[in-house]
Amino acid sequence: MAAAASSTDRPGALDITRRLTEICGPPFARLAGPADEVAGRPARWVAVPGGPRAAAEVLRLAARHDLTVVPRGAGTKIDWGAAPDRVDIMLDTGRLAGIGHEPVGASTAEIGGGTPMRAVQATLERTGQRLALDAPSPGATLGGVLAAGEAGPLRHRHGTACDQLVSLRYLDADGELVGAGGGAEGLELARLLCGSQGALGVLVSATLRVHAVPASRIWVTRPVWTPLEVHDLVRTVLAARLDPAAVELDLPAGAGSRPRQGGRAESMARHPSMTGRAATGPARAGTLVVLLEGGPADVAERADRMVSLLDGGATASHAAPEWWRRYPFGPGDTALRLEVPITDLHAAVYALRDAAGTPVPVRGSAGLGVVNAALPGAMPAERVASILAAVRGVLLARQGRCVVVSAPEPVRRAVDLWGELAGLARLRAAKEHLDPHHRLAPGRLPGGL
Predict the structure, then answer these.
(1) Is residue 66 left, alpha or beta, with left meaning phi > 0 and alpha meaning psi from -120 to 50?
(2) N or C end: fewer C-beta atoms under 10 angstroms in the chain?
(3) Neighbours of 54 (CB within 10 A)
(4) What kind and span of H or E run contains 395?
(5) What burial class does residue 70 get, using C-beta atoms within 10 Å of its C-beta: 0-12 exposed, 13-18 middle, 19+ buried?
(6) What confidence tens digit (pLDDT) does each residue in 10-48 have?
């Protein structure tokens, strides 16, 4: 708030406030408040333009006064990634929303960048369709999902939101409305904006493929105890060719070696005096879950085969497990994303455990080798840095990587959030081409771009 208040003392600041109000309307332009920050960096103004033309005017105003602009959707991932160097105008995309009128049964839909994903799915479901997107962030907008490169369990079959793009429209740093798509070169540009955290353009709308809502969904759940066991089971699942929509893993911090069956400990656990008491075994099981979608008879038959294939207490249910589409980290934690070939996922998890000196909660798409993990927010930054160095050393030899998704400010200052990044030169060239004056979310991209 101090930054916002002091901004009124600068020459021309009141004029900028007035101009933003003229562009967006009196209720939709204001000095920033305490909650208006990006990864801890406070904004000076908040503008909520009513459409693409108004958003373009905000960007042109920023260009004339050499101000930076950082887009914000629902703010569910506003603390992901690096803090920008400066946040002059926070451009809220909440009014860049809506779903284009498409014929019933159309294979694509154009959706405004500020449209909440829940609203998109609810609208499409009325015609028996859906986006094959299930990003875990509650309340997320489509633009936020694209800008953060976020994906959920359905990425196993359908890919990420960026993989499903047909085209998009965005505003460049000078406020020009640009269309990207309609060919290999256009799609390459469109997908370049995915994961860019608003540092290459302000997403106005995106056209994505839509799919029929599956008639039936069954989750097959199998308890697991170790990363190596997960490795063997995932290989079995993929080799069976039962067309899973998702293959997800949840390994809580308490997961460990499978407890021995029989003996005095088991007898004591069955004793009447233990009725109603929590189990006190040495470890908790994790779970491997396979989602099957399709026609009712086909899904039921595939689910029966999957249960038999996984054995070991596998069960089938028409309801997702409680942790489905949820991250293993919470506010204030250091959140990690590990990406590795599926044959080496167990090695990555073991490396993380060894470096941390204790089991670390891990959850994500085991069938793709993309999982998230959480380190406690109270862990010293130096300790986090040493864990990252050890894990990245293991992953480097396996063509994998470990990214810090979000972290407390001391950790963000102390560590390299991205590690080795093969495409940095290409990203730098894109930034120089699309935003040569570094007015859009400067510093949010790798390499301080």
Answers:
(1) left
(2) N
(3) 19
(4) helix 381-396
(5) buried
(6) 557 889 999 999 999 999 999 999 999 999 999 999 999
